[in-house]
Amino acid sequence: MKFYILPFLAVILLAVSCQKISNLDDIEIVSSDAEFAVPLLSAEFTLQKLLDNFGELAVITIDPDGTIRLTYDGEILSQGADVITSAINDVLPLGFPVPVTENELLLPFSIPAEYEFDFISLKAGSLVYAFTLAPEDEIDLVLTFPNFLIDGEPIEYTVSAVGGQPFYGNTLAPTDLAGAVIDPEADGSLRVLYTATNADGSNFEFGSGLRNLAFTIQDNLEFDYLEGYLGGEVFDNDTPGEIVIDFFGEFTRGDVWFQEPTITMTIDNSFGMPVSSQAEYFEVVTVDGEVLPLRSDELGPDLELDFNYPGLDEVGESKQTTYVFNKDNSNIDSILGSSPAFIRYDVNALPNPDQDTDLRGFISCESEYSVNLKADLPIYGRASNFGAQDTFDLNFNDYKDVKSVEFKIVTENQLPLDIGMQIYFVKNDNSIVDSLFADVTTVISSADVDGEGNATNSSKEETFAPIDAERFQKIATEANKVFVSTAFSTTGNGTIPVKVLADQKVEVRMGLKVVRE
User: Fold this and answer.
1) Architecture of the domain delimited by 2-57+382-516
2) Less packed terminus of the chain by CB within 10 Å, N or C?
3) 3-class SS at 3?
4) What's the pLDDT tens digit per position in 98-107?
């Protein structure tokens, strides 16, 4: 409705303010040499043609039956695999040497308590080891990583070392871990084993001639796939957001009620585990500043909505979940129905909300989920004394020889809307010199509607606004601008919900009768 009123008013007022009555080429003589009719405007408008003048934030669509919909979209939550892989990286000893001083070492890999990994495959990474040996010693060393597998076999280094070398190891040719699998022990730990024997087969004690045995998992480690129980820690959304509803941006008063608004929440999820939404807050703020929380008995106070997810045999697939908040399952009609300014939210995600450790899931490096929001406002509702206003420059300096004028506006309207108008002639300081009408005057009358709010006919209206010589001269000499104030209501003065369709049109003809001295 906004995209109809303001362009219409702009066209009319600009036509009036730019018309040069002193140029008589197009003026028709009415009754004498001193009386002329000036055609100012003859136009036909449909909402379809005027959609481009609407605010930039809405996507406007037309249903097959012609109903216009304003749609506002926003992504309220998204998360990739790094929410879990970063937690693992935080506890792995990446990038610095880990000393091996015992024949069996439990790698200091403290898996976060909320995770139980069955196995992990790596996309990238490298492993190096090194040690030094006293000059007089000669040993055979076997260093084994039982839980790091390449092609199904544990990573193992076998070295025959003779003292006198600066060091032994693979620091110049690290082991490539791309494609390797980490297969933790039942308790989640990772082991490192070593044996060292003398040439005669006897055990060689660490710390005698064998020194500085250590390995390093370099910090280029990247995960490709993780499988197991993947926790129940909240994925916190660090960036609460809002969706601005700019429909009401230029209106200044009155009430508009959308009859059937909806909010559609769509989740695309390729995490192979259950995830549920968890709202810190989800609310609508009206143009009056009132804060109205979204409520749904089906989803509870935290709006807990379970995401569909792919199974272990569906790696790489994404599952979608859609939930529509409407007047039957929520309070959306009361919070979004009346003058919303914006929707604001802080929504987190809770993986494995039931904390069932028997339910095994997966995450691949490409896993992600996103939660998108779409607010849909069909132009179906009611309005009462809803107002807009604007100001235009005006110059009557060339009209000194005009004795009086009379504006005539003729409209034929298929829309179920009454549009009233008042035009004020004002000075630069916005003080009022005069007005076109004595009061707000209905210049476009509403079409009649049936019981379902559909217009059944068109209405016609003729409006006259005479301005005598004294008033006109005062306006011409003192006014610099025109201030336009409008008010519109749906059929029945805002008591009946109506539908506004794209192809409904308004025909407007505006003329000016001029009497010259």
Assistant:
1) Sandwich (2.60)
2) C
3) helix
4) 888 889 988 7
